[in-house]
TrEMBL record:
PROSITE patterns: XYLOSE_ISOMERASE. It catalyses: alpha-D-xylose = alpha-D-xylulofuranose. InterPro entries: Xyl_isomerase-like_sf (IPR036237), Xyl_isomerase-like_TIM-brl (IPR013022), Xylose_isom_bac (IPR013452), Xylose_isomerase (IPR001998). This is Xylose isomerase. It comes from Roseivivax sediminis. One of its GO terms (cellular component) is cytoplasm. Mg(2+) 1 binds at E230, E266, D294, D337. NCBIfam families: PRK05474.1, xylose_isom_A.
Amino acid sequence: MTDFFRDIPTIEYRGPGADTEFAYRHYDPDETVMGKRLEDHLRFAVAYWHSFAWEGGDPFGGQTFDRPWFGGTMEDAKLKADAAFELFALLGQPFFCFHDADVRPEGDSFAESRRNLEEITDYFGTKMEETGTRLLWGTANMFSHRRFMSGAATNPDPEVFAWSAASVKACMDATQKLGGANYVLWGGREGYETLLNTDMGRERQQAGRFLTMVVDYAKKIGFDGTILIEPKPQEPTKHQYDYDVATIYGFLKDFGLENEVKLNIEQGHAILAGHSFEHELALARELGILGSIDMNRNDYQSGWDTDQFPNNVPEVALAYYEVLRAGGFGTGGTNFDAKLRRQSLDPEDLVLAHVGAMDICARGLKAAAAMLEDGGLEAARAERYAGWDRPENAAMLTSDLSTIAARVESDALNPEPRSGKQERLENWVSRFV
């Protein structure tokens, strides 16, 4: 045990009238919504990197946090794990997520780093047995170290490709050993700054072959979780091969992997791609590749990924509306890929940031479920497209231009615009949030 979270009580549901900050007002894990416990709908996870590895820096300043586990030894890594699992227990979080670099010190060689990861994996296993916390997903950090400045799978240096492949194998082995529900590939450097020094065709082929090897290895070791890719636009690379849902789906189709891989979609990344979060979720749902989500928000006045905890119920409700329409998460969940502001120094800040975010998500999901059960939005959509249900109109989708043109003239068609009723539907959503 550590004393990092000393005097902070275990967080419990006490309802909207709770007289303390240290309580859930809306998140009751045992509340039943649409026939399922709220905990099983939301499947919350703590992000190990932001909560325990991030030092509080930003593009203009360095470390502001002073944590007792900041250091480069295995003892530091184990102390960090002790504190992390104490937080999981305080919050009642069912899951956590990690990168390999978050949890083990970097060795002087790949072999030493791998041994460090294996040692901390065994330590995690003991902690998971003690607390009941599970692993939502693991992933390899292939973007922070300078060796990845030109990418990982897409790197022009074959030795970096090889290092990346070995890193993913080691991290997949750790994820498998810990019973992880998913494995994520986060391609933060898989892109390019300029075509002047880039062979785009070669790099796409490398990325496709790399992902195929990941899928093959998952089958080889009997990994029964889901392989996920996380869309990542603009930051830090100007042109990303994994820019958004549509881009990745085209990539998956190109390499015959559309039935093997799903997506982990982040709110902040959707915004950087110029989309809404619900757009990305809806498209992934339509394409059958919605897997899991990273829940956070960006500062809309900043042009970079600020990774703030969610606080907007209407936005969150529209996101979970798409998740519920997809039938829920399956193996995925809600990972808080969010970090404290660099001036929020206290352990209490870390606890309360998660408490508030979990309440926001609970409110959002319950509102989304109420909207679905009411059916008003789906009824409005059905009415708008009702004309396509008539046989003569449905037949156009299997017809040809000449036949359709003849019909327009013979029936003297002269369509008039009809209202999309956007403001009325926005008002309808507001009733629930």
